[in-house]
Design a protein that fits this description.
441 residues; alpha/beta; Arc Repressor Mutant, subunit A; four-stranded antiparallel β-sheet; two-stranded parallel sheet; 18 helices; RNA-binding
Amino acid sequence: MAPSPTGNLHIGTARTALYNYIFAQKYGGTFIMRIEDTDKERSTSAFEEEIIEGLTWLGLKWDDFYRQSERGDIYKKYLETLIAEEKAYVSKEESRREPGTEIEVIRLKNAGKSITFEDEVRGEVTFDTTELGDFVIARSIDDALYHFTVVVDDHEMGVTHVIRGEDHISNTPRQILIQEAIGAVRPVYAHLPLLLAPDRSKLSKRHGAVALKDYQDAGYLPSALGNYLSLLGWNPGTDQELFSLEELTAEFDLGGVQKGGAIFDIEKLKWFNKEHLRGFDAAAFYEYAAPWLLPIVSEKSQFSEDRLQKLLPTIHERITHGSEIVENAEAGEYDFAFETPAVTAEMLAWKNDDSAKDALPRLRKVAEILSTLPEDGDFETLKAPIFAFAEQVGKGEVLWPLRVALTGKERSPDPFTVIHIIGTAESYKRVQHACDTILSA
RNA sequence: GGCCCUAUCGUCUAACGGUUAGGACAUCAGGUUUUCAUCCUGGAAAUCGGAGUUCGAUUCUCCGUAGGGUCACCA
């Protein structure tokens, strides 16, 4: 894998890295991380750090690590050889980067022949290299350019398979020309379909989140993101969609790679994340969710660790990814667990009721039942007597006003879950308060 | 514009000449102990167009059309 530290780690780059990693794993090969930082003006260590951090987060482990900026002597040696063999030459010309400055670039002699190579996903591809001309391979003898460094490194490092984005397909013939010049063996090429934005153009910043970091920060799980990314442009030929990294390694093959570009669909990613989250037990989910939730609810008047623990399962069931917890919390969706809700009389009326007054006797009865129940009863203990009453009088007629009395919300978890979270004493208070509200309405 | 690549439901995709064109996400409807969520069931939804080849084309060929990539002293 050969990312360039000249910008945020792109989600497409992450996918390419993933495919490379999986492929190398599957065939017992060596996964090489090679930082392509030959452009000194654009490369930064912060971006390099982001690449390393991001791919590590995704679960990728490389066997070898190189930086092209540390390999100048090797490139220089190859350049000198090519010049000595008259396969390349020094050309004195005006700098394009700095007009007015005279520099000596190195150009490869190009006979302009037709190059055909076998692409593992696309089959035979042919290019005419004539219009490339004698292209520049180095800014100077000490400053080799991308196409040259890549070919030299692939050769030196014994790279057998080049799996990269389709945007590189037209670079391939010129790299083959360089290979032939330095006497390198041609690796196997596989050009992956591009990741597209919803408008089918190349996925870029103007389409929103394209950095791996954006998804990390939004709380997507590396396993879910990797799973989704793996299926964007590849499929195992079965209906299975949920994969761990290990399973992917076992199933993957280049033959299952798609030719056409694939639109990155955030909705499907959310589904994958939810599915991966499903496997979390309470402790794991606590660790996942608490950092998102705590800053928002820890100052609420009735906040306690106990309530937080009991609330978490309902959140687990409802959210797709971490930042959604923040959205919901900020919208007040979890307030019922940590503070007394504001309730209005009209909300307390069930749809079959004429007014909230109809609900009054039912709420009083529930309050009475509540007063007999243990504060820390389990879900079934709390539910049984109240539900029995509800079945007698009418489920909606009892349960709706009860739920609203407890939460003050149009939508929330069911009343038994809420009672379980806040305890019977607090529940009793809230129901009594709802009764007072009805009376004073 | 030149060159290259691509083309199945809205989206990701399956179907290596013969299927009622399958699955998943999203969506819609109904159901499951009130609302939300979960879960279950069901529905709607696709082979870009035109010629060929063939007994038979989603599948093979050609031509269109559309989309994309690339044309650096970036990677």
